[in-house]
Structure formats: structure tokens, C-alpha cells
UniProtKB/TrEMBL annotation:
Catalytic activity from the UniProt record: RNA(n) + a ribonucleoside 5'-triphosphate = RNA(n+1) + diphosphate
Highest taxon above the source species: Eukaryota
Gene3D superfamilies: 2.40.40.20, RNA polymerase ii, RNA polymerase II, clamp domain
Source taxonomy: Eukaryota, Viridiplantae, Streptophyta, Embryophyta, Tracheophyta
RNA polymerase N-terminal domain ranges (all copies): 247-508
EC number of this enzyme: 2.7.7.6
Molecular function terms, GO-annotated: DNA binding; DNA-directed RNA polymerase activity; metal ion binding
Record protein name field: DNA-directed RNA polymerase subunit
GO cellular component: DNA-directed RNA polymerase complex; nucleus
Amino acid sequence: MATTTGQSEAQAQFQFTKQPYVEDVGPRKIQSIKFSMMSGPEIMKASEVQVCNASFYDPNRKPKRNALLDSRMGPANKTIICETCHGELKDCPGHYGYLHLCLPVFNVGYFNAILNILKCICKSCARILLSKKERISYLKKMRNPKPEALQKTATAKAILKSCKPKTCSRCGYVNAVVKKAGTVMGIIHDRSKKFTDDTDKECKAALSGTKDSGTRIQILNPVRVLGLFKRILDQDCELLYLSVRPEKLIITDILVPPIAVRPSSFVDGGRSNEDDITSKLNTIIQTNASLRQDLDGKKSTSQCLGDWELLQVEVAQYINSEVRGVPLSMMQPSKPLRGFVQRLKGKQGRFRGNLCGKRVEYTARTVISPDPNLKITEVGIPILIAQTLTYPELVSQHNIEKLRKCVLNGAQKYPGAKSIKSADGSMMFQLNRNQKNLAYGLKFGDIVERHLEDGDVVLFNRQPSLHRMSIMCHRGEVLGITRFGIQKMKESVLIVDMIEGVSGCIIMGIPTQLGTGILKVRQRVEHIPQLDYGKEPIMSCG
């Protein structure tokens, strides 16, 4: 009976899980992380529901099935339970859906890559336009593990330059210039020797679908490009420096993000305002349905091409709402919606707005002035900064007397200290009272947060170039000034221009030793547009 109960409990534990049971063998080391595009079958496999309904709610204000707010992709509000993981709004991480396009479209993010691939392959047999000798030579370079990524990128550029318009040596097809057409994301294969007015008219007629392009101007639409990319050999993908199959550059299915990524905002009266992503996906569903009706109803070629181009524009704006070349007839009169590119890039984007630190500890900021008495490796530190910023020094038999004097001076007198941390890390003592008892009670292994002193290593950097390559190491020299002092010869290194003896803001950080031996800069800097000469510096101590 006990065995049966244990088996039933084990079955109930894994009844609602999609992933198979994996035994926990402890921590593992990650060797590498690979980023790649997802193909249509991969998107469908990772999704929970196919989205094809343009409506949001039914008459009872419940999310419709197979719609953008389907509860299988996560709860849309606090009153709904996720049908996939049975979690509430605060617990469900969200689940993906997919939207199948009746005709494929180009990916706006990889449009230039698509053009370069088409320039390198035959437009008939999809083989790369290189001779046998060139293929062997370039393939040997690409398969060599010693060259770095930049060298292989240079080799890929050389291959692109070698694949000039020529007759294919395998099928005899005459390949010509491949270039972007006048539409948003159109590609043409111009086989005419000279671009005349008649060629221009023929190109426009072919793009509009009112006339057959014949043999001189060929339209490389996404359907034809997808067929060519599927026929490219894996060996040719190595020559093109592609880590994935090129057909993944063509969008056949759109991955619909979970509702948690695009939450709805509710206003008075029970109405809801949908996110920009949800609104754009709803437009794509409507355009895709209209195109499917055109194809099923056997509408005119021009009407089908018009809806296909509109679908291409909508999908491109879904990824990047600032895509160029959109015709005025397709421009939205209202405020443009924010695409995924706009959500990621810029100062307010996901990376700079959330992931990158902007307020850091153990730094100070003020203006700089030249000081000919300093060495090139030194930087003058105001005494106010030296009293505020501290350095954690470990008590040993060589420095216990020096640190005892710092503790006796306290936090207000230089050179002093601000706090003491016990050797086991269990207690922290602030030096605002009982300094004498704490000074004579120092033990080996204690850590004293002392003031900066002459010879301390500091990291110096000019605002706003806060990247790692511009941070320089200096030896501090504590002076009775209100600004940083640098040697006159360091102006060109810091890219500063002294105006009336004073330059812009400089940030200084304190490197702190970690247990692993890595130097870590802990900084916090408040944003101030400009500091004038003679004003007190800005400091922050964690």
C-alpha cells in the first residue's frame, strides 16, 4: 500500500510538467552559450498555442481562444489562471505562442545579410559563385581553428568580393547584379547590361505585378529566396561564414511573446489599453487574414502583391518601428508604435536602462587642474575626498601601529578611519565613540576602513568615457585642494582641454581586493551636468 501511494505521488509530481525528469547531479560548468535564430518548426515546437484570432475578448469579457490574450500564454489580469502551468499572475512566467504567415517575409534585421548571400550564390542552382580552386583555398581558411573571428570575417568579405556577377560554372546560368528595389524590402536581379528607361519601366511593372519581368529583370521575392536558401549546401554555408542554415533568415512563423512581456493596462470602466506589441501583432493577424482571403479567392496579382508588401511592412515595423522606405500610403497617421529594437537600444532601453549600473560606490567626482609638482603616475586627491573614501586594510604585524593611530584619530581627523570589521566578519564597529578601546583592541585579521593616504592605488577616468579601456591606474597624493590634480603632460591622454586652468568632470574609483584576487571597482556617481571651479567635489562611499 505504501509503495502504491509513493508511486502515485511521484506520478502526480510530474503530471503537469513538459520536461522529462532529470536527476540532480550537482553544479555543472557551462562551456559555451550560442545565440541563433529560430526556424518555423522550432518556433512551433516552443509554443503553446497558435494565434490566429484578431479579437481580444468574448462578449463576457473573457480572453478568446487562439487570440493574443489567450490564457494559455499566461494570465492577462489577477482574476485569470494560466491554463498551461495553472499559476496566477504573480507566479506564471508566461508561455509563447506562434503566428503562421501564409506567405514568408524578409527579416528586417538580416536584410543586408540576405543581400550578401544572394550576391554570392547562383540564382538557379544555389551554389556559391567560386571556382573549384578558390573554394578549396577559402574552405581551408574557414576550417582552420587558429584564426580569430575578425580574421574569418575578413575572409568572408574577401569571398563576397570574389563572387562577382558571372556565369555559373556548374549550370551555366548568367548571374548579374543583385540590389535592393524601390520598395521597402524588395530585391531584384538585374540581368540587363545597361540600365535604361525601358529597364526602369520594366522593373516597376514587375514589382507591381502588372507585367511579366521576362529575362532581364527578375524579382527575388521571399518565396523564391527561401527556395534558394534551402538548396544551399552546408559546405557553402561554411564559406559564407554562417553558423546556422540561411533559410532561418526568412520569417515563416512569428513567435508571439507571453502576455507578461506585453501586459494590458486597465482604465476606469473596465476598458483595457493594449501594449504596442499586442496592437502591432493584431494588425499583422488582420493583414495576414486579408492576404489569405486574396489567395483563396484568386484575386488579381496586383492586389495580392499589395497585401503581401503590406504584411512585409507590418512585420518589419513589429521588429523595428523606425524602418526606412515605408510608402506614405502605408504610414500610420497615429503615433508610431515601439518595436523590439526601440525597446532594447538607447538610454531608456532594456540594457542601458536596467542592466548596466549607473550608480556605483567608492567613487568621487570633481573637476581637474594641472599640477606640475606631481609625477605622471600620480593624481592629486582633495583631503575631503580622502576622508570620505576608505580603503579596507587587513591588520597584520607590519601595520597594526599605523592602523591603531588611524582608529584613534577617528573619522573626522586625517589620517583616520571610519569603521572596523572583525576578523570573522560577524561585527562592524563605527568609529564615532569608544575609539580608544577599539584602537587598543585591534587584532590580527581585523579589517580597518581607513582614509586614503599617499601611494594608494586609485582608478582615474574622464567623464563620460566610462568604458573599461579608458580607465587608468594612478598613485594617490593627498593635497589640501578642492579638485583633482594631474600632471600637465596627461592632458592628451585624458583628452581634456584646460580652460582657465580647469577642465571637466573626472571620476576616481577605489579598487577593492576580493577573495579571489580580482580587483573590482565599486562606484556610485550622482549625475551633475557641470561642476564649476572651486566647488566641493561629489563623493559617494558604500
